[in-house]
Amino acid sequence: MNIEIRGAERLSFRERQVVVLKEMGWSNEQVAKRLSLAAGTVATLYNRAKSKGYQVVIVLPGDTLGLFDSADREEEE
């Protein structure tokens, strides 16, 4: 799985780090421990990033969700 952050150029390096981990489902405490920050700092960075506006796009390789069988794929080609 790849995560693309659209609008990342508006975010600081630390905000990008926080956004990626938060969008992956990590708690403020987990992110804080990983980045050696206070949980309050993580919350501030995340809220600041959200106010700058960004969009997260998750790119899943192949048919990892199992939505299509081989016949469907042959029709697409």
TrEMBL record:
Membrane-spanning parts: none
Any Pfam family from its record, for instance, is: Sigma70_r4_2
Q: Which GO terms describe its cellular component?
A: DNA-directed RNA polymerase complex
Q: Per its UniProt record, what SUPFAM superfamilies does this chain match?
A: C-terminal effector domain of the bipartite response regulators
Domain spans labelled HTH luxR-type: 25-52
Which keywords appear in this protein's UniProt record, sorted alphabetically?
Answer: DNA-directed RNA polymerase, Transcription
Q: What is this protein called?
A: DNA-directed RNA polymerase specialized sigma24 family protein
Question: What is the scientific name of the source organism?
Answer: Symbiobacterium terraclitae
